[in-house]
Every structure is written in structure tokens, then in C-alpha cells.
Design brief:
CATH superfamily of the domain at 4-117 and 209-227 in chain B: Thiolase/Chalcone synthase
Radius of gyration of chain B: 19 Å
Strand content of chain A: 25-35%
Order of helices and strands of chain B: EHEHHEHEHHHHHEEEHEHEHHHHEE
Structural class of chain B: alpha/beta
CATH topology of the domain at 4-117 and 209-227 in chain B: Peroxisomal Thiolase, Chain A, domain 1
Largest interface: A-B, 44 and 41 residues
Strand order of the largest sheet of chain A: 6-5-4-7-8
Strand content of chain B: 15-25%
CATH class of the domain at 4-117 and 209-227 in chain B: Alpha Beta
Number of helices of chain A: 1
Distance between the termini of chain B: 22 Å
Number of strands of chain B: 11
Distance between the termini of chain A: 33 Å
Strand order of the largest sheet of chain B: 3-2-4-7-1-8-11-10-9
Structural class of chain A: mainly beta
Number of strands of chain A: 8
Oligomer: heterodimer
Shape of chain B: globular
Chain lengths: ~150, ~375
């Protein structure tokens, strides 16, 4: 079981570089529904019409776990959460959720979270060491968003 | 459409085996041919259920290899990969081949060789079925189970101990299965004090990594007695397959497996029965929480009540609805491509009255095979011929 080389430094305040980070892109469809990740077609078969940046939304923890037996290239232990984004009162589509790692505190330990906690996405340029596992490194992105409790 | 019968069955010992995938498949295949009183040359179709022989041991093309090893050429062959539900999907393909009239005699062999890989490597091969946005966070199938178990316990006010009782029950059942990887009872304290894997789940909430193979022989019901002159055969009275979202967090209710709901609805309708008519079931207890979810989504119990059935002994071998008399994946083991075939093997044995010390009173049995974390599901209903 190997640890990831990814620095878990998401507790730090955003730098100028971080402000240029990629968006947390979800897809918006013609019927108003939103999904993460984006799909070519929406959950009800509607065509994609645009994007939504989930960085603009807070989320609540739906559930979480700490995985002790992690695959090659993944930090151990690995605390994961499924979160549901607050999309605003006008949104009436299916829930918009994401699964992601829970960010680490200044000591390098994953923040404690419980069901119902408010969290916000924070960018990490490498979530898992590309090439350490079975998946072809060039086949997908390895950066993304962890979740940090909102105080 | 022809009704389809199962007239032969076999399974190897599950566990850590020296044999590689070709040898495991041949071992089960040869035994099933013998059980049906036929030879390889009699087969029209030969299917192999296997998830990842290429990834695990660098051996691809296993159906053709098996056809050659069993002298089954020129039978039509195909490999069926539907991840952990490859076995169930193979049952569906074999049923379809006979029901459609394309084949008069089909054999399905499911198998996997896994134990030569480390737990981390095997876990990663299985986790490779996930979406890139899941995989990059290091998600594993056990971590999906931990996430879902926590939510289930919270939503339905179920005690943690109820999950442990699934492990206790299935280990007790496995003691009487000569093919099972673990033939050892465990007590609740051992389960609850075992090392945390993906909290709240611990080591004994998870099935092991396993080598093994199982096989079934299918023919039209109209000729079943040619192969089973004593009348000991089973009929597939209903079968259904369905998918749910690839991305697990996109499901409306993370504690509901839509593929189980949809595939079983098709199977019940085809068989003309209701959940109450099922006498015995084999469920995909890769993780203890999955036995709760499936028992509810199959309609055996109300949503959120599956844990109570385990607490009350309803699903024990001597209960009203015995679940996982084989020991389940939890005790018997989970050689991915073989598991769905071995589930049907157990139900075949039960409805033909040939389950030995595991025998329960059963005319109708159900097997539910789950791939991914509910991503793909096959439900099959078998009835005894007598």
C-alpha cells in the first residue's frame, strides 16, 4: 500500500495561482437539470446547454467514510465524502452531488466531518499519483476538488 | 419462446488455489459436462463469465482456450464481462441462447484467478470500473460500502451490530459448504472488533479475494429429461437484467439499488410470481450492507426493514426466507466472474433437493448478482421440475 505523492495542502489560503485553478465543472441541460460529472446527455435525456461552476456553491455532507485499505498511489487513510450542493431555491432538478476526498488540516490529517456538515470545495492539483494504479495516466485528469468544512 | 432448463452444474473449491484461470475453468467445465452426461463436442454454445483475466494474469481469449481444452470446438464462444455480475450476465446470455433457439445445448463457465495479486492490486483492478471523477479520489468498492453503510444506519436507525449479524449468519451457513473458502463460524464480537477497513465497516463485513470457477449446462425444457432422466433439473422461470448509474453519487437514493429493483421486476413478471413466493435466495453479499439493500430492493422487506429481518432470524437457514445458504460471497468467496454462476448453482441444488446439509424446503429460488456497486444487476428465478 503506497502513499500518494500528492501534497495535501488544501488548508492554505488561495494564492493568485489557485485563483486561476480549473473550474469545478458540472453540466447544465435543456430541462434545467444539472449533473456532476457532465454527461453528453442529461438524466432525463435533455441536451447539454451549458456549464455550472460548483465552486460557487456550498455543499452538505451526505455521508462519509475513512478507507484504510487504499490502492496504489492513494493516500492512506483516505477520508471520502459524498456531498450535495445547495443549488438555490429555484433549482428543482435532481440532487447535484459529488464524491471527493476530505481536505487535510494543517497537521496533515483529514478534517473531521459528520453527516449534515457544510463544506466547500478546495482545489488540489494531484489527488492520486498518476500511473501508480492500473489506469493509464494519460486517460484522465488527476487534479480536482477536495472538501473542507465551512466554519 | 422456449422455457430453459438447467441440467448440469458444478463448482470448484473456492479459495486460494494453485491453478490459473484456464485450469480453473476447465476443472468446473469438465465436471459440469460430466454431471449432464455430455461431452464438449455436444455443445452448440460455450460462454465464459470473467471480469479481468487479462488484468489479473495476462491471459485473454479464455473462451477459445476453454473450447479447445474441453474438445468443444466448433461451438460458438464468447466472454461475458459485466464486472462482479459477469456470472449473472453469463446466465442471462446462456438463457437467451437457448430461449431464442440459437442453441440447443449451452454451457456457461464462470471463473477468476485473483489471489496471486496483493489486496491493494486486486482492489485497484476492481476499482478500475469506476468513473474517472471517482477513481482519481482513490475510491474503492469497499469505500462505497462504507459510505452507504453509514448513511443506511443513520437513515433507518439500524444498529451497527445488525451488519455484523449478516457475517455471523453467512459464516455459519458456509460451514456446511464443501466448496466454501471459509468453513468457520465467527461470533459477533470477532466481527465487531476486527480491523476497520472503511468505517463503519470492518474486515468481517467484506468478502475475501478468491480463486474459483463454477459451471452450468442449459437446454430447452422440452428435452431436459434426456439429460436428467431422474427429473432432477431446474427451470429458469424468470430472468431480468438492468443497470443503474455508472457514477454512484448520482443516484436519487444512495441506499436503493435501482438495478436490483428493475431486474427483479422483470424476473418476477416473467415467472408470474411475487417476492412472497420465493423460498430461498442467494444475494450478492460482497459487503454485509449489500444483503440489507438487496433484500429490500427485491421486495422481500420494506425499505429500511431488512436489518430487522436479520435481527429476528427471518433470513437464517431455518427462518422463513433463508438467504445465502451457500455461505454467500462473504464465506464462500468471491471469484468475480464465477460468483453469479455459483449463486445459481446453489439455487439449482436447493430446488432440485440436492443441497445436502444446507437443504431447505424450496420449490422456488432467486439469485441476485450485482456488478460494481449496483451498477449492473441480473436477477434469476429458478423452479424445481418436481
Amino acid at each position: 500500500m503506497s502513499d500518494t505523492n500528492a501534497d495535501d495542502d488544501t488548508h492554505e489560503e488561495p494564492t493568485d495561482e489557485a485563483r486561476d485553478e480549473p473550474t469545478f465543472e458540472a453540466a447544465e441541460y435543456a430541462d434545467g437539470s444539472v449533473s456532476y460529472p457532465p454527461h453528453p446527455v442529461g438524466p432525463n435525456g435533455a441536451e447539454r446547454v451549458g456549464s455550472v461552476d460548483l465552486r460557487e456553491h456550498e455543499a452538505r455532507v451526505v455521508t462519509w467514510t475513512t478507507s484504510m485499505a487504499t490502492p496504489p498511489g492513494v493516500r492512506a487513510p483516505n477520508t471520502l465524502a459524498i456531498v450535495e450542493f445547495e443549488m438555490g431555491e429555484e433549482y428543482d432538478g435532481p440532487p447535484v452531488r459529488a464524491l471527493g476526498q476530505v481536505a487535510a488540516d494543517p497537521d496533515g490529517n483529514a478534517f473531521d466531518v459528520v453527516i449534515g456538515d457544510h463544506v466547500e470545495p478546495v482545489y488540489a492539483d494531484e489527488l492520486r499519483e498518476p500511473g501508480a494504479g492500473i489506469r493509464e495516466p494519460a486517460s484522465q485528469a488527476w487534479d480536482g476538488f477536495r472538501f473542507r468544512p465551512v466554519e | 419462446m422456449e422455457r430453459v432448463a438447467i441440467v448440469g452444474a458444478s463448482m470448484t473449491r473456492f479459495g486460494q488455489r494453485d491453478a490459473w484461470v484456464r485450469e480453473l475453468l476447465a476443472e468446473a467445465g469438465e465436471a459440469a459436462l460430466s454431471d449432464a452426461g455430455i461431452v464438449g463436442d455436444d455443445l452448440d454454445h460455450l460462454y465464459v463469465s470473467n471480469m479481468a483475466s487479462g488484468e489479473f494474469e495476462g491471459q485473454t481469449g479464455v473462451p477459445n482456450a476453454l473450447a479447445h481444452d474441453l474438445a468443444a470446438t466448433p461451438a460458438y464462444t464468447a466472454r461475458i464481462d459485466q464486472t462482479s455480475s459477469s456470472g449473472g450476465a453469463g446466465v442471462y446470455a446462456a438463457w437467451q441462447s437457448v430461449a431464442s433457439g440459437a442453441s440447443d445445448l449451452t454451457m456457461l463457465v464462470g471463473g477468476e484467478k485473483m489471489t496471486h495479486r496483493s489486496t491493494a492490486e486486486a482492489t485497484d483492478v476492481i476499482a478500475s470500473l469506476t468513473h474517472p471523477v471517482e477513481y482519481k479520489h482513490g475510491v474503492t468498492l469497499p469505500s462505497f460500502a462504507g459510505l452507504t453503510a453509514r448513511l443506511y444506519l443513520d437513515e433507518y436507525d439500524a444498529p451497527r451490530e445488525s451488519l455484523g449479524k449478516v457475517a455471523v449468519k453467512n459464516h455459519a451457513n458456509g460451514v456446511d459448504n464443501p466448496h466454501a473458502q471459509f468453513r468457520k463460524e465467527v461470533d459477533l464480537e470477532t466481527v465487531l472488533e476486527s480491523p476497520v477497513v472503511a468505517d463503519p465497516l470492518r474486515l468481517y463485513d467484506f468478502c475475501p479475494i478468491t480463486d474459483g470457477s463454477a459451471a452450468l449446462v442449459f437446454c430447452p425444457e422440452s428435452v431436459a429429461e434426456e439429460y436428467a432422466p431422474d427429473g432432477e433439473y431446474a427451470v429458469i422461470s424468470g430472468i431480468g437484467g438492468a443497470t443503474d448509474t455508472h457514477v454512484v453519487h448520482e443516484r436519487a437514493d444512495p441506499t436503493t439499488m435501482g438495478g436490483v429493483v428493475d431486474s427483479s421486476a422483470i424476473a418476477y413478471e416473467m415467472a408470474g410470481i411475487a417476492p412472497d413466493d420465493v423460498d430461498v435466495a442467494e444475494l450478492h453479499d460482497m459487503f454485509t450492507i449489500l444483503e440489507f439493500l438487496q433484500s429490500e430492493d427485491l421486495g422481500f422487506f420494506e425499505k429500511g426493514e431488512g436489518w430487522k429481518a436479520v435481527e429476528e432470524g427471518v433470513t437464517d437457514r431455518d427462518g422463513e426466507l433463508p438467504i445465502n445458504t451457500s455461505g454467500g460471497l462473504k464465506s464462500k468467496g468471491h471469484p468475480l466472474g464465477a460468483s453469479g454462476v455459483a449463486q445459481v448453482y446453489e439455487i439449482y441444488k436447493q430446488v432440485t433437493g440436492d443441497a445436502g446439509p444446507r437443504q431447505v424446503e424450496a420449490d422456488t429460488g432467486l439469485a441476485c448478482n450485482v456488478g460494481g456497486f449496483g451498477n449492473c444487476v441480473t436477477t434469476a428465478i429458478l423452479e424445481g421440475s418436481q
